Amino acid sequence: MTNLKPIVEPIVEIGRLTAELVALAQISEAEPPIVTRIVFSEADLRARAYVKNLALAAGLAIREDAVGNTFLRWAGAEPDLPAVATGSHIDAIPNAGAYDGTVGVLGGLEAIRSLQAAGFRPRRSIELVLFTSEEPTRFGIGCLGSRLMSAVMTPDHATTLRDKEGRSLDELRAEAGFIGDLSSVTMPAGYYHAFVELHIEQGPLLEREGLELGIVTHIAAPASLRILIEGEGGHAGAMLMPDRHDALAAASELILALEAAAKSTGVIDTVATVGVCEVFPGAVNSVPSRVRLETDIRDTDSARRDGVLAKLRSVAKEVAERRGVRISLETVNADPPATSDPAILNALEASIADAGKTSRKMVSRAYHDSLFVARFAPAAMLFIPCRGGVSHRPDEYASPEWITTGVEVLARTLAQLAQ
Length: 419
Ligand SMILES: [Zn+2]
Hints:
Blueprint: H1 14-26, E1 35-37, H2 42-57, E2 61-64, E3 70-74, E4 83-88, E5 92-96, H3 102-117, E6 126-130, H4 144-149, H5 155-159, H6 169-175, E7 192-200, H7 205-209, E8 213-219, E9 221-230, E10 234-235, H8 247-264, E11 271-280, E12 286-287, E13 290-299, H9 302-323, E14 326-334, E15 338-339, H10 342-355, E16 359-364, H11 369-373, E17 379-384, H12 400-418
Parallel strand pairs: 4-6, 4-7, 7-17, 8-16
Antiparallel strand pairs: 1-5, 2-3, 3-6, 8-15, 8-17, 9-13, 9-14, 10-12, 11-13
The protein binds zinc ion (ZN).
């Protein structure tokens, strides 16, 4: 915490920002107020054009990379220094709302404009980043742009991505005007001095506790597994119990073992879910011969999360032997969690004190582009409340007051980090 006078008093124009959020929400593949903006759709491209025009009007320089990540730069007095960045995404899953991601993009732009209006002159450049395809809707994997920026995903892997119609990422990005080698998307270490993402909480805690801001100290990351259990099918009447190798009975042991393993860490941050259970042949008079499970295991600590995974694997081995079934576990993805940068957390706390706002520290249980940015730059996130904790729905809502507070604190933080 600082006792010094704040370096700037940002002038946030919430009327302008609210109008822009409304205008952006109108750019949708679905009938407003439903927001659907799948990456590289006509709506996505129109929404990108809308944001870029606003950025141009604010005097920002535009750069786009080969996958469509867009960098809108306010040049600092010393433009060769590593820049300070903020940003988020404007793509939206089907049947979504107006605030997820967009608050971090248009709010980030307003933060820059509020500093310009206050006469602030940054020493480091300040960059607003619009990440491509944070949502997994089209290609089945989230945070595509930031995964490539951080080299967590290789260009070779990206080249294999296809949408449901079988169209490749390369084909679709070229059609959208983003060409060039995907290896050029990788960001060099040291490119950013700091990155702060403003986002709605997507959970109920801030509103419930009457707090204005959440300082995100950790971003939990999911490990996702596909589990296939193969037993022996047969007639539900004729196959006697001692002879059975029931795949669903084996699966149910795994589901309960996973729940117990997550609870056994004794830490609230460990969560595990089996969200898909497909039973073959799925007939009432037939012993299940095959079951496919999909699981999502998250934690803020990768060792603890991997401990849960290890328990699940050992139970799977034991169940397979005892019940005479085959169990295979395939890891779909296992991204490491991220820890926020302490210097940025300090800057956020000082800014919140300067602005006289209330806050708490918290964990982000949803994951964000910041998870991947944290791989190549010091990063942190700032949450504002959203009504009822609701997101990914048309009735998603953040009040102008909440947004103003988020933008003001973001602006103060960017100014501190860029001075
Ligand atoms: Zn988001």
